[in-house]
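A.,

Following up on our hallway conversation. C-alpha cells first:
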C-alpha cells in the first residue's frame, strides 16, 4: 500500500470506460519515466483504468504508479451479478478506488449512503478511497453548492474515525464541469475545496489538514497549474486529458 506524505500533490487520471487492455498496457509502459520524474518532485501519479485493464497497468507500470479501480461493491462475495469486490481487487494488488463519481451517481444510483458503505469497507481493508463529491448545474445555479457538498461529505464519511480518514482523498468535481470544457474558476475550486476541509475539520479535527482534496472538471495541461496553486487544492482528478500519454505528461510537466 502506498502511504502518502503530508499532502503530497496528486495527479490522478480517470479513464472511465476507455482503452482496451492492450492500449492500457502501452500507456503503462510509456508512463514509467513520468512516475519516476513525479516521485523526484514529490508528486503522486496514478490512473483508474477499467476493471479489465487493471492487471495490465499494474503489471506494466512503475511500482510507484497508483492504480485504482473506478468502483467496488461493499460485499466481498455473493449474488451480485456484474459487481467486483475488494478481495478481487486486492488479488491484483489494487489498493485505491474511486467512490461516488458523478457518472455513477447519475447513471447507477450511487447514493451517499452507498458511498459510505463502500468507503468503510475500503478503509477497513487498508485501501484508499477517492471520494468524489460535487453539485449539478441546477444546484450550482440555485446557490446550493456548499449544502450539497456538505451533505455528501457528512453522509459519505459517517461513522469513520479521524485515524481512519488520514489516507482518504476527497475530489471536488462540479458535475457541470466534468467533460464539458466549462471549468470552475480557480476561485470556486479553492472556495469549495477549503469548505470541504472545514467540514472535514469539524468531523475529524486536525487530521483534516492531512487529507488531500483534489479538484476535477475539465482540467487540462493549460489550466492545471492555476488549480494546483490554490492553497486547498492538493491535486487534480482528470478525465479526458489523462487518456493520451502526451497530454498526461504535459499535465505533469506543468505542475513540476
Ligand atoms: C472525471 O472524469 O472525473 C473528470 C473530471 O473528467 P474531465 O477531466 O474529462 O472533465
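Then the amino acids I'd put at each of the 256 positions:
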Amino acid at each position: 500500500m502506498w502511504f502518502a506524505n503530508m499532502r503530497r500533490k496528486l495527479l490522478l487520471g480517470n479513464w472511465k470506460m476507455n482503452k482496451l487492455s492492450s492500449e492500457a498496457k502501452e500507456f503503462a509502459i510509456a508512463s514509467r519515466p513520468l512516475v519516476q520524474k513525479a516521485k523526484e518532485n514529490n508528486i503522486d501519479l496514478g490512473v483508474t483504468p477499467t476493471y479489465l485493464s487493471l492487471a495490465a497497468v499494474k503489471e506494466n507500470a512503475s511500482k510507484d504508479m497508483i492504480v485504482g479501480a473506478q468502483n467496488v461493491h461493499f460485499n466481498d462475495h455473493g449474488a451480485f451479478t456484474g459487481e467486483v469486490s475488494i478481495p478481487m481487487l486486492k488479488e491484483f494488488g489494487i489498493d485505491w478506488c474511486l467512490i461516488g463519481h458523478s457518472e455513477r451517481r447519475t447513471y447507477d444510483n450511487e447514493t451517499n449512503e452507498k458511498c459510505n458503505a463502500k468507503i468503510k469497507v475500503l478503509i477497513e481493508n487498508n485501501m484508499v478511497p477517492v471520494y468524489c463529491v460535487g453539485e449539478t448545474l441546477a444546484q450550482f445555479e440555485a446557490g446550493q453548492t456548499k449544502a450539497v457538498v456538505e451533505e455528501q461529505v457528512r453522509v459519505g464519511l459517517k461513522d469513520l474515525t479521524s485515524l481512519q480518514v488520514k489516507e482518504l482523498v476527497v475530489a471536488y468535481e462540479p458535475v457541470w464541469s466534468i467533460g464539458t470544457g466549462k471549468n470552475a474558476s480557480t476561485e470556486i475550486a479553492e472556495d469549495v475545496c477549503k469548505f470541504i476541509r472545514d467540514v472535514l475539520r469539524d468531523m475529524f479535527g486536525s487530521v483534516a489538514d492531512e487529507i488531500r482534496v483534489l479538484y476535477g472538471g475539465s482540467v487540462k495541461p493549460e489550466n492545471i497549474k492555476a488549480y494546483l496553486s490554490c492553497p486547498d487544492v492538493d491535486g487534480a482528478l482528470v478525465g479526458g486529458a489523462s487518456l493520451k500519454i502526451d497530454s498526461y505528461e504535459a499535465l505533469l510537466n506543468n505542475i513540476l
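The chain has one domain: 2-255. Curious whether your intuition agrees with the design.

B.
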